[in-house]
């Protein structure tokens, strides 16, 4: 197993964000972590990257309990923009290169070209879609076993979404990387997911292999997700 959550509860003050969750992620798979706003998706990713700690239970990546240090094995695309506006895309790549020993500078410039981004353009001049693309370039250029993407499509138009999905497929190393995509935009990642997890109110309420869903149950991921939510008494 590449990532293990065992009996993990996470509270923010009185607010319970995750509720005694046990889940093991296998290597070489793309997981879709699906749920409505506030269901605990971001919290799950933050626990895996060591940005927040569980109140109880344990989180481990490659058998090592997660501490802040573990982020060396995890590339994390956040919802928030954490860019230096006055940097150019090229300078941002150089900066990442100094921050992460596993960063592949050559791959980053190749990805930049693939996404039709200029290395000389300042980040503050980029459209929202191009900032989204740059975030993905910086995340995918890291050679790490775990890649976490938090709402990679948020606010992007369909063409940008397509290009992101395509570059995900061509730039993930399926031999050794585990990818978790947290999103409530299920349609976008339907074609690329191997496994789906439904999360609601801090509980994992369903988990399926996508091929089994399609072939044995004749369901799309979206149909399965809606059914799973309805079974929980939650209309969608
Ligand atoms: N820093 C925080 N302080 C207090 N409560 C928080 C904090 N972060 C998250 N929460 C709460 O924890 C719960 C889970 O939030 P989380 O961000 O993990 O959900 P999410 O599924 O990623 O939602 P979204 O799709 O809106 O980002 C929510 O009820 C949220 O309000």
TrEMBL record:
<dbReference type="Pfam" id="PF00005">
    <property type="entry name" value="ABC_tran"/>
</dbReference>
<protein>
    <submittedName>
        <fullName>ABC transporter ATP-binding protein</fullName>
    </submittedName>
</protein>
<keyword id="KW-0547">Nucleotide-binding</keyword>
<dbReference type="InterPro" id="IPR003439">
    <property type="entry name" value="ABC_transporter-like_ATP-bd"/>
</dbReference>
<dbReference type="GO" id="GO:0016887">
    <property type="term" value="F:ATP hydrolysis activity"/>
</dbReference>
<feature type="domain" description="ABC transporter">
    <location>
        <begin position="3"/>
        <end position="226"/>
    </location>
</feature>
<dbReference type="InterPro" id="IPR027417">
    <property type="entry name" value="P-loop_NTPase"/>
</dbReference>
<dbReference type="GO" id="GO:0005524">
    <property type="term" value="F:ATP binding"/>
</dbReference>
<keyword id="KW-0067">ATP-binding</keyword>
<dbReference type="InterPro" id="IPR003593">
    <property type="entry name" value="AAA+_ATPase"/>
</dbReference>
């Amino acid at each position: 197993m590449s990532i293990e959550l065992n009996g993990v509860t996470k509270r923010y003050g009185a607010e319970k964000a995750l509720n005694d969750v046990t889940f093991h992620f296998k290597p070489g798979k793309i997981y879709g972590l699906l749920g409505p706003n506030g269901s605990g998706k971001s919290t799950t990713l933050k626990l895996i990257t060591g940005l927040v700690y569980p109140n109880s239970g344990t989180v481990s990546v490659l058998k090592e309990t997660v501490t802040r240090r573990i982020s060396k094995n995890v590339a994390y695309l956040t919802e928030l923009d954490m860019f230096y506006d006055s940097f150019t895309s090229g300078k941002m790549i150089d900066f990442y290169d100094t921050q992460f020993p596993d960063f592949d500078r050559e791959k980053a410039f190749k990805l930049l070209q693939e996404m039709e981004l200029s290395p000389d353009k300042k980040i503050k001049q980029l459209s929202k879609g191009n900032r989204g693309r740059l975030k993905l370039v910086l995340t995918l250029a890291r050679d790490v076993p775990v890649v976490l993407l938090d709402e990679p499509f948020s606010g992007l138009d369909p063409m940008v979404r397509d290009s992101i999905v395509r570059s995900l497929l061509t730039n993930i190393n399926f031999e050794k990387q585990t990818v978790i995509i947290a999103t409530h935009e299920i349609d976008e990642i339907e074609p690329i997911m191997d496994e789906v997890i439904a999360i609601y109110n801090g509980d994992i309420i369903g988990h399926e292999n996508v091929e089994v869903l399609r072939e044995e149950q004749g369901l799309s991921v979206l149909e399965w997700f809606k059914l799973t939510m309805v079974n929980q008494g939650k209309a969608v």
